[in-house]
Amino acid sequence: AIKRRFYHEKVIDHYENPRNMGSLDKNDPTVGTGLVGAPACGDVMRLQIKVDESGKISDVKFKTFGCGSAIASSSYITERVMGMNLDEAGKIKNTDIAKELCLPPVKLHCSMLAEDAIKSAINDYRKKQGGTILNAAAAA
Ligand code: FES
Ligand code: FES
């Protein structure tokens, strides 16, 4: 259990009722997977996005092995990026997350994990799409 008095109620809410927890098929070409770790503490976050034909994020799932703030940051970012295009989602700053969740300075790296995870998921998706285009060109 996390120590309630040290956390803002928004953190507690995301921690106790995490949104969009789970997995997407990482072999699906329309899914990008980001897996990142926090050097400061060793916590790990996996974030996956599914992108529809219009380039918008139509599904998003996370799994986080970490502290309450890391879980809350991942839960929050999944809600935030749903329906965004990739450029918008890539612009979310850890400081926005920390501000929204009222994280104290010592927990800033927890929200950094969420920023890194979404960027890494976007990169993975783009890499996969690039691969698809190359294969199509090679086949033509
Ligand atoms: Fe890893 Fe926070 S130090 S749970
Ligand atoms: Fe390490 Fe929160 S204490 S991610």
Helix-strand layout with pairing:
Layout: H1 9-16, E1 31-37, E2 44-51, E3 57-65, H2 68-81, H3 86-90, H4 94-100, H5 108-139
Antiparallel strand pairs: 1-2, 2-3
Helix pairs in contact: 1-2, 2-5, 4-5
The structure holds FE2/S2 (inorganic) cluster (FES) (2 copies).
From the structure above, extract its key features.
globular, binds FE2/S2 (inorganic) cluster, Iron-sulfur cluster assembly protein, 2Fe-2S, iron-sulfur, metal-binding, three-stranded antiparallel beta sheet, 5 helices, Sufe protein. Chain: A, alpha+beta, mitochondrion, single chain
What would your notes on this structure say?
The protein has a 3-stranded antiparallel beta sheet. It has one domain (4-129): Sufe protein. Chain: A (Alpha-Beta Complex). The chain has helices spanning 9-16, 68-81, 86-90, 94-100, 108-139; strands at 31-37, 44-51, 57-65. It is 47% helix and 17% strand. Helix 1 packs across helix 2 and helix 2 (68-81) crosses helix 5 (108-139). It is built from 5 helices and 3 strands. It comes from Mycoemilia scoparia. Keywords: 2Fe-2S, Iron, Iron-sulfur, Metal-binding, Mitochondrion, Transit peptide.
